[in-house]
Structures are given as C-alpha cells and as structure tokens.
Amino acid sequence: MSRKSLITMSWITFFVGTFIFLFFGIEKTVENYFFNILVAGLYSFTIALGNGVVNDFLNRKYSWVDETRKRTVYGVISTVVVNIVLVLFCNYVNFILLQKQDSAAFFTGNLGFSNWFTINIALLISAILHAKGFMEAWKSSTKQEVVQQKLIAKSANAQFESLKNQLDPHFLFNSLNVLSALIDENPHQAQRFTASMSKIYRYVLEQKDKELVTVEEEIEFAKTYCNLLKTRFEDSVNFGFNVNENVLKSFVVPLSLQLLLENCIKHNFATSSKPLVIKIYSEGNYLFIENNLQQREQMKESAGIGLSNIVQRYSLLSKQNVFIEKSSEFFRVKIPILTQKISAMKTNPSDEAIAYKKATERVKELKGFYANLTSYCLVIPFLVFVNLFTSPEYYWFWWPMLGWGIGVGSHALQTFGIGKNWEEKQIQKILNKDKK
C-alpha cells in the first residue's frame, strides 16, 4: 500500500473513531476514545488492505480496457466474498474478543444485523472504489488514444507536405530538360516554350499547396500543358480529351495530370510516323490517362517521383486506390475522382477513432450501472434502519430490497453480456451458420 493510502486510512480511522465516540459513546472517557480509534482502525485498515490486495491482483491479471467484462465479473465476485470474510473477521474481533459478547449470538439478533449492515457498507465503499478505478483506467486509455490520433494526424500532414514539396523541383527539372533540348533543335520554339512555361509554372506555384483541385481546373491546366508539349513535339504527339461535364466540379489531386503526361513523354518515343497518342477521359468516378505503348530504352533508372507521388497523396487523402494497367499495346493510369473536398487531417477515420467512440459509449453504459448499484447500496440499508426502528414487528423493507434488487440484477445482465449485445451475437451466429 502506498504512503498516500496509509495517510488516507489514518485520517478515516481518526474521523470515524471520533464520530462514533462523540455521537454513540456512552461514557466519554479517554480510554473509550482510544478504544473507538482502535476499533475504527481495525475496520479501516483490514478492509482497505484486503480490498487493495484483491484490486491490485485483478488489475495485473485483467485490464479494465481490454477485458472489461471479465474484470467486472471477477471483481464483483471477489469483492463480495472478500468483504464478507473481512467484515465477519473484524466484527468477531470487535464484539467477541474485545467486547466479550456471547459468541453463540454472533449471527443472530443485534450482532447479526451489525454483520449484515457492515457488509453492505463495505460493499458500497468497494463498489465506489471499483468504479473509480474503472473510470481512471478508461480515462488514461482515452488520453493515450487522443495523443496517438494527434501523432497520426501530424505524421500524415508532414508526409503530405513532403510529397507536395516534391512537385516544384520535379516540374522545374523536367521543364528545363525540355527547354535545353529545344534550344539546340529550334531556338524560336525555345522562346515560345519559355513564355508558356512561365504561365504554367505560375499555376504550379498556386496549386502545389492545395490538397485538392476541381477536375475542371486540372483539365484546363492539362490542356495548356499539352499545348506546351506540342510546341516541342509538333505532330509527333497527339492529345485527346473526353471528360464528362458532370464530374468537372468534383476533385482530384493537383498536378496529377501534369505528372502523368510527363511520364508518357518520358517513357515513350514519339515520331511523325509513329505518333504518341495520349487520351484523357472519364468513366464513372475515375479519370483515365492512357497512351499507346511505344516504350523507349531507359539509359538510367527512373527516380519514379511522378507516379509514386500521386499514389501516396491519394493514399493520405482517400481510401480509393490509384490503378495502373499495362499491356503490350497501351499503358493506362486510373485516378479516383473525389466527390467532396477533404483534408489530410480528417481523412481515413482509423480503427482507433472508431474504438474511441465505442469506448465512450461503453463508459456511459457502465457508469449508469454503477450509479444504480451505488444508489441501491445506499438507500436499502437506510430503509432497513428506518424499518427496524419504526415498525420492527413488520419487515416491509424486503419488498423494495427485492424489487430494486431484481432491477439491478437485470441492469447488470444487460450491461455485462446479456441484452442487446447478446441478441446481436446470437443473430450473427445463426446468419453465419446459414452462410455455411
């Protein structure tokens, strides 16, 4: 037991002993005062130590978070057994050994009532401590989940920013390569290319920090970029656009078409006799970029920034996948069209987030049960006390005890396994059998 717990038990002993001495003590002497402190300490430390040992053992063996039902069932059983044994032990020491009362009447009369009343008080305190331990365990668990979610979100944002920052140097590097080739081949076209490139580069700077842009914006940019490519390749490259109007207001990853168009040019040869044909069209909720396969030999291994960049950005923003299809005749990339604007911080609701929501609901359900149990343990002993001191000839307290007790029992069954969850499990079992 910790130092803090020992101090708490000492204060409880002091206040309980003093209270009993002042309000129930017959002789107000120093000896009686210390005797009451001794008896209060006997109950406080014995019951507290016993319950503490049991709680520590159960907490090590079963987690409140991962094994809630098992922890609760074993907790209830062990608490009832341990408190009955400890209270009977304390009462025996107090009444039989210290006060020298008749041991034959230990389970009858006033002693029997004292046993029953003290057991209920001990169970009430134990139930409150169990509920406190449960709430602290769930609170600690939910805090950890919130921290994990924040770390996941920060990691996703950092990764997303890193991917977006690849676009600027990637575009500039490839454009300068094209410009370098044009300067030797056709200086006039190089001038036109430079003017067009400045307009396109402005768009790159504007869009690279966005997570999503409309399909309409991306298509317009792609057409401008295709005109830029036409400046160099002339009739060696042909472009075709066929995008449905109903998807123009939907969203795609920015500069995805530009990166894919670059890949088409980079990995295929194009001549006037064998032109490279690139098609951009939509089908369903996907945008297709397709080219006839005229694969050129690669002098060096590609860095693979363009396509992998798109795949990774989509993986951070959506559960929808980017598809790549390749045959002997064509190469096709299929990118998802997203119907609503989202952000990396809010995408991909994780299993942890779903578990957190379920845990919150579970906490409310268990909190309701413990509140019901605590009220029962408080009110019923009070009713028994009132009954015995007002009309001892008729034990009417049995009716509220039994009626409310049945209610608490059914509440426990519903909370810890038999109820809606049990019905759902049984239905699911039947459905699984039918499938087999």
What's the alpha carbon Rg, rounded to whole Å?
38 Å
User: Poorly predicted ranges (pLDDT <50, ≥5 residues)?
Assistant: 344-350
The separation of the N and C termini measures 54 Å
Report the count of strand segments: 7
Work out the count of structural domains. Answer: 2
Strand fraction equals 5-15%
- In terms of quaternary structure, the protein is single chain
Please describe the biggest sheet, giving its number of strands, its sense, and whether it closes into a barrel.
Answer: 5 strands, mixed
Question: On the 0-100 scale, what is the average pLDDT?
Answer: 77
The class by helix and strand makeup works out as alpha+beta
Order of helices and strands: HHHHHHEHEEHEEHEEHHH
- Strands of the widest sheet, in order across it, are 2-4-5-7-6
Helix content: 55-70%
Q: Count helical runs.
A: 12
Explain this structure.
This protein has 436 residues and is of the alpha+beta class. It has 2 domains: 62-153 and 351-435, no CATH class; 166-336, Heat Shock Protein 90, CATH 3.30.565.10. It contains 12 helices and 7 strands. Helix 6 runs antiparallel to helix 7 (215-233). The two termini are 54 Å apart.
